[in-house]
Design brief:
alpha/beta; TIM Barrel; five-stranded parallel sheet; three-stranded parallel sheet; 9 helices; 8 strands
C-alpha cells in the first residue's frame, strides 16, 4: 500500500512539473520568447535595474484624443509608442505623420482589431501586412513592434507575423482599462501607486466616449512620474536598453 501511495505521489509530481513547465514557457514575459518554429521575442517589461518606463497607447489614432495626447507629450518632452489600427491610420494619416515627425514609435495593432482566436493565420497575416504597409507609407519606417488585440498570443499569432517584429504586451499591473472611462483619479492613482522600473504602461488614445478620462489622467501622471525620476522611452529603446 505504501509503495502504491509513493507511486501516486511521484505521478502527481511529474504531471505538476509538466504543467508548470508549460506555464512558464508560455507565460514567461520579458525575455526572448522561443517557440518550436522561430525565435520570436515576447516583451512585457524591460530592465528592472534602470528607472525607465515605456508609455504605450492602443487602438488609435483618434482625431481628437490622439492629438491632445501628442500635445501633452510634446509639453513634457516624452516619447511614447502608439499601437495603431490600420483602418484608423488610413482615416487620419496626418496624425501618423505627426507621431513619426515628433519621434514617437508606431506599432502594429492589426488593421481592424480582429479577434485573433476566431480567424485563420492567413487573415492575421493579411491584417498585419496591410497595417505594416500603411505605417511604412505614412511614417517612412517599418514598424518593429506588434501588439496582438486583446493581448492574445499563441503559435498561430507568432508564425503569422514578421519575425523581425517583437510581440509586445504590457506589465502585469499596467492595464488600467482606461478605455472604459473608470474615472480620471482611478487611472492616475493606479498607475502612480503600482509603477516599477521597466514597466510597459498600457493606455488607449481611442475610446468610444464623448470624453477621454485618459487625457485628463495624463495631466496628473506625466509630471508626477517625471518628478519621481522616471525616464520615458519608446519600446524599441526599452528592448535595446534591456538586452
Amino acid at each position: 500500500m505504501r509503495k502504491k501511495h509513493i507511486k501516486v505521489q511521484i505521478t502527481v509530481i511529474i504531471i505538476f512539473s509538466i504543467i508548470l513547465g508549460f506555464s512558464i514557457k508560455y507565460v514567461s514575459f520579458g525575455n526572448p520568447y522561443k517557440t518550436k518554429s522561430n525565435q520570436q521575442k515576447l516583451i512585457s517589461y524591460g530592465s528592472k535595474e534602470q528607472k525607465i518606463i515605456a508609455l504605450t497607447f492602443d487602438d488609435g489614432p483618434h482625431p481628437k484624443y490622439t492629438t491632445e495626447i501628442l500635445d501633452l507629450l510634446n509639453e513634457y518632452n516624452i516619447k511614447a509608442t502608439f499601437f495603431v489600427l490600420g483602418k484608423f491610420a488610413e482615416q487620419y494619416p496626418e496624425i501618423i505623420k505627426r507621431q513619426a515627425k515628433e519621434g514617437h514609435e508606431i506599432g502594429n495593432h492589426t488593421y481592424s482589431h480582429i479577434n485573433v482566436k476566431k480567424v485563420s493565420k492567413e487573415k492575421i497575416q493579411e491584417e498585419f501586412n496591410k497595417t505594416q504597409e500603411i505605417i511604412l507609407s505614412l511614417a517612412g519606417v517599418e514598424s518593429k513592434v506588434f501588439r496582438p488585440p486583446y493581448g492574445i498570443f499563441d503559435e498561430k499569432i507568432i508564425s503569422a507575423i514578421n519575425k523581425e517584429c517583437s510581440i509586445v504586451l504590457w506589465s502585469q499591473n499596467e492595464d488600467h482599462k482606461d478605455w472604459s472611462n473608470p474615472g480620471v483619479k482611478k487611472i492616475a492613482d493606479t498607475i502612480l501607486s503600482q509603477i516599477e522600473n521597466g514597466d510597459i504602461i498600457l493606455l488607449h488614445d481611442y475610446v468610444y466616449h464623448n470624453e477621454s478620462h485618459t487625457v485628463e489622467a495624463l495631466k496628473i501622471i506625466l509630471p508626477e512620474l517625471k518628478n519621481k525620476g522616471y525616464k520615458f522611452v519608446t519600446l524599441s529603446e526599452l528592448i535595446e536598453i534591456s538586452k
